[in-house]
Protein: Cytochrome P450 4F1
Organism: Mycena sanguinolenta
Amino acid sequence: MVLIYLLSPLAALFLYLCYRVLVAPRFSVLRNLPGPPVLEWFGNHLQHVLKSMSSSSNDMGGRSGIRGLGPWDDRLLTLDPVSFSHIVKNTAIYEKPWQSRTLITSLIGCGMLSAEGLVHKRQRRVALPAFSAQNMRSLVEISFNKGIQLRDAWMDLISSETELAARIDVCQWLSRVTFDVIGLAGFDYSFNSIKDETNELFIAYRDMFEIVISQSTVFRTASLHIPADYQPAPDETVRTVDRCQEVIHRIAGRLIQEKKEKLSEGEKSGDPYDGRDLLTLLLKSNAAADLEPEQRISDDDILNNINTFMFAGSDTSSLSMTWTLYLLAQNPDIQERLRAELLSVAQEFPRDLSELTEDQVHSLHTALSGLPFLHNVTRESLRLIPPLHSTLRIATQDDEIPTMYPVHDRDGTVNENRRSFIMPKGTVVHLSVEAFNLDKDVWGEDAWEFNPDRWDNLPELVQQYPWHFSNILTFSAGPRASTHLSLKYRN
Ligand code: HEM
């Protein structure tokens, strides 16, 4: 009897897997789309798609059927800007697949990155005021001071080196800087990780993000399909995540309570608390008188979104800065031009930047924001090496997807008059940011090169692209684009 009890769910699981791997793919409409052949039975196209320079070949009319992790994972890959835009804008139809959402939620809770539908709308409505241009401006000083601390730390390292050439792990240092900045800007908390890396909360976030990123995607996704009763005993990853989450809930939970007390004391005394960090702004926006009670979010949601800012904002920012420095090191002539432009501004300010007054910091920031070559270098680096390669969506109902290019069929026929195709419910769409940013048909033959000057004379097609940050997709697009630039979408 016990054996039957144990075996029947296993048998059901076995049959389900056979259906997913052997039967269902045969009926997938994606198999009728143009696309590269699969060479092995368990093979996939991910290596090809994730390889930066090959992911942008757009010779199948902008859409193809590819295989994700294995034979059970057919995906639509679209390189057609109109289709892409349709998919990211229609968040009511296209959601993130439950596998991605479960993985993110198990780590940082259900914040904006993984929430869907009304929950997502509610969270985003409360969070967006915190990202207004005025509030972002008040964070300039934090970034500026951390920049100075980093410079000093590097200078100390260089001068204390006994060898001729000092070795600096730029990526690791910049990661500490972004943690520090988001800690202060996000919840008025000092990780102080540029000075040393011993802060308990800093270690908890760092260990949690590192261990999950280092795990194989296939293994993590496969484990999601195993019913709770049959999950293997907690391994090193699960134990680390549990330990880190305990620290985060204890410390960040306390910070939320402290902020709430400050806000309520300020209200009672008639001297409102004026913290400018994202946590304070989120709490204020959540308590705003014009917000209906059902639109407010819970303390847990607030904590999940603070975690989300740490997760979504730290590695992305530090990686893009690291790559920018790498590209400059590889292109000394461009580095020289940028340096000359920066020095032209520096002359107007005191030599010792740590002596700048608050007003001077802001005028320096305004001056830097207006430098055309700096702007070009930043956009070009973000275009060429986007920190997030791609993202996934799943159709929650049948849909007709519009296209910019004529529709190609698998046998090679091109229907010049057809500018849409039908995608059934359940289709997974692979949205490749990098493929768009590097498409030679759009950006020109030098699309894979670092050429900041291209921004002075963009191809016409690029200018027609429907994305709202500098014609590139690096921050995604639509109502789920990266929060700091999507004020336009107040859904
Ligand atoms: C170079 C820096 C950054 C890049 C390239 C970047 C890129 C992106 C991309 C591509 C997405 C869409 C993800 C998806 O659809 O799966 C996203 C979402 C998001 N980003 Fe960023 N991001 C950056 C910095 C930041 C920072 C500094 C923050 C906040 C402190 C942030 C907060 C978020 C949030 C909350 C979302 C989820 C938005 C939603 O689904 O409503 N990001 N980011």
